[in-house]
Amino acid sequence: MNAPTRILDTMTELHRFLFCSANAGHAQWLSAALCDEGVVLQEAGRPAQLQQRIGDLDPQVVLLDFSGDPGGRIDDDSADGGFVGAIELAQMLKRVAPKLPLVAVGSMVRADGMKAAIRAGVHDFIDMHSTHEEALDVIRRVIDQTPPPSAVSPQRHGRFVVLLGARIGVGCSTLAAHLSQLGQEMVLGVHPDKAARAAKAPANKDDKFDASRVGHVALLDLGLPSGDGLLYLNTQSQFSFAEAVQNLRRFDETLVHTAVSHTPSGLAVLPLPLDLGDMRSVAAADALALTDRLRTFFDLVVADLGGFSNPAFVASLVRAADEVWLVVDQSVGAIVSLASMLRDLEAKGVERHHLQLVLNRYDPRYGMAADQIAKRFEISLLATLPDRPLAMLSATNQGKLILDTARSDPYVRALQPLVERLLSAQHAGAAAQRHSSGWLGRFMGKH
């Protein structure tokens, strides 16, 4: 049976145990045995389907049926004593959620089930012929040995960069997509020649995402028109920024792996919801809490807010960002919009020294020089990015980034030092945090 996700809101004080099996009798026995410690949620399906449900249900422990009972299988294969589905699911979970504890459920009298569970690498075993108290002891032991989510990555505090387009159409989303993807590749150490060869290879829609590559760069695709970031990255997503905020209480590494969309390189993408009206329920404080949570999982978080129309929401993220890039081009409309944006930000308490100017589609022949624009608005000039309309359009029409089609393009070369600087700053901050994470740093953090 499929447990409704809405019941999770009533379980804040209880542990959730996900039992992956079609055997209703086993589920009833486990529910009775573990009722003092939590709630047993039963799910039956193939591993590919269960991966999404695990992200939705956010269990503390996953129980796998190694009883060998045909009524409990989650696969249609009769080979290997009926344990194929449980083994496959265990392998998938160790790949996408390596810190999620796995407990086998079966019978001590079936040696083949015990051996299959051991090969699958489970953390412990519940004997269905034991007492409820013994089963409860197993679960409590597993929970006690599992570190809390806050202890998973105490050292990481990724860099948060906000990109603000002066107006729709200045190339803010294009920049955000390229910046994020290039950052992901640099962190992974992908050689440019290797990346270029991979880009020329035909795409395989059946390619599976390797979760071991998660934990580097995330893109918040919140710019307007909505979904441009996903479009440029040739990626789809069923999980939006608004849903992530709604699930903030249980937004952990498992949810990052199972619910958040990723490109083949591992770049995580959280877009706007399909119904933009859903963003009205997103409070600025909750959005800030989500970005802070994301920084514990990713080295770099890039937020595209080009064209976002809620000044209070924008200002709250801007104040929390490590860097804020104002993206503008040399058109009169963009310059006028930049002046209006600066007034709005100052009215919300954002000081200009916290802002940096990125002049996109820049060509000296267009008129006003970059340093003149920066001086006019009293903003430091971070970079100029060349106007490359033909190369950009050609890449977009192929469903690719210019990174993939023309790695040596002047636009890419102009981006590289920006990404290197961001990653260097993040690594320096992480090193300083590690230095202060000894007993004295922990003591100071409590006072």
TrEMBL record:
Keywords for this protein: Phosphoprotein
Gene Ontology terms, MF aspect: ATP binding; ATP hydrolysis activity
Gene Ontology annotations for the cellular component aspect, listed alphabetically: cytoplasmic side of plasma membrane; cytosol
Domain Response regulatory stretches: 16-143
GO biological process: negative regulation of cell division; phosphorelay signal transduction system
4-aspartylphosphate, modified sites: 65
PANTHER family linked to this entry: SEPTUM SITE-DETERMINING PROTEIN MIND HOMOLOG, CHLOROPLASTIC-RELATED, SLR0110 PROTEIN
Stated name of the protein: Flp pilus assembly ATPase
Species of provenance: Pandoraea terrigena
